[in-house]
Amino acid sequence: MEKTKKRSKGNRMTQDIVFNAVIVLLLLFLIVIMAYPIYFVLVASFSDPTYVNNGDFLLYPKGFTLLGYEKVFEESRVWIGYANTILYTALGTALGVFITMMAGFALSRKELPFRNAFMGFFVFTMYFNGGLIPYYMVVKSLNLTNTRFLMIIISAVAVYNIIITRSFMLSNVAEELRDAARIDGCGDGRFFFQIVMPLSKAIAAVLVLYLAVTYWNSYFNPMIFLTDRSKYPLALYLREILLTVSTNAQSSVTSDASAAAMLQKMSQVIKYGIIVVSTLPIVCVYPFLQKYFVKGVMIGSIKG
C-alpha cells in the first residue's frame, strides 16, 4: 500500500515537473517573440545602414554608428516638440487624473441622483459619436483651434478610465468608512481629498500611465487642430522628419543616384532612431508605476 502511494506521489511529481517545464518553455518562447522586435529596433538604431537594409539578424549593433540619432537631434524641431509634448503630457495627465478620480468617486456613491442614467450616457458616447467634421466644428466654434489649451484638455477624460475608477471606488472605499467620516463631521470634499485620494494610489498610477502614453503618442489631434508649428508636439515633428527623409530620397533618384542610395540607406536608421527617441522617455516612467499598476489593472478580477 505504501509503495503504491509513493509510486503515485512520484508520478505526480514527475508530471508536475514536465508540466512546469513545458509552461516555462512556452513563456520563454512568447517572451522572445514579443521582446525581439523591440530589441531589434534598439540595435538597428545603432547599426550601420547596410546591415539594417539587408535584413540581417541583429543580436548586437553591427558597424556601430550614431548617424540616425545625429540626423534626428540636429533638427531644432525635435527640441521644440519635446518641450511641447512634456507640457501637454504633464498638464493633461494631471488634469485627467483629477477629473477622472472625481467622476469615478461621484458615480460610485449610491446617494448620487440618476447615477445609473449618467453612467449609461457616458457608455453611450463610447460607441456613438458625431464624426470628425462635427467634432472639428464644435472645437472651432469654441475658438479652441490652434491653442495649447485644447491640446491639454482634448484627451483628459475617457469613459473607460471613469469606468475602471468607479469600479475601484466601489471595491475599495467602504460605505462604513464614509459613515464614520460623516459622524466625525467630514464633508464630501474633505472625505475625497483626505481619505479617498490616499487610498486610491493604485488606480491613480493606472490613470497616470494610460493618460501619459495617450498624450505622449498623440499626433492625430494636433495634426487636425494645430496650424502654428511652434505648438507641434514631438510625434508630429518626428512624422515630418521621417516624411522629409523619404521624400528627399525619392526626389534624389533622378538627380544623383549615389545621393539617393545614401538617403535610402539612412532612412531606415533614422526611422529606428525616431522610434527610440519617441518611446524611450515614456518607457522609463513605467518602472516607477509598476507596483501600483499591477494592482490597479487587477480590479474586478478577483471575486469574493
Question: Number of DSSP helices?
Answer: 14
Extended strand count: 0
Helical amount among residues, as a percent range?
A: over 70%
Strand content: under 5%
Going by CATH, the homologous superfamily of the largest domain would be MetI-like
CATH architectural designation of the largest domain = Orthogonal Bundle
Explain this structure.
- The chain is 77% helix and 0% strand.
- With 304 residues, the protein is mainly α.
- It has 2 domains: 2-45; 67-297, Orthogonal Bundle (MetI-like fold), CATH 1.10.3720.10.
- Helix 4 packs across helix 8 and helix 13 (234-251) packs antiparallel against helix 14.
- Mean pLDDT is 81; it is low at 300-304.
- It is a multi-pass membrane protein.
- Belongs to the binding-protein-dependent transport system permease family.
- It comes from Candidatus Caccousia stercoris.
Features:
mainly alpha; MetI-like fold; 77% helix; 304 residues; 14 helices; 2 domains; flat; disordered C terminus
Q: TL;DR of this structure?
A:
The protein is mainly alpha-helical. It has helices at residues 2-45, 49-53, 67-73, 76-108, 115-127, 132-141, 148-153, 159-172, 175-183, 188-199, 201-217, 220-225, 234-251, 257-297. The chain is built from 14 helices and no strands.
Layout of secondary structure:
Elements: H1 2-45, H2 49-53, H3 67-73, H4 76-108, H5 115-127, H6 132-141, H7 148-153, H8 159-172, H9 175-183, H10 188-199, H11 201-217, H12 220-225, H13 234-251, H14 257-297
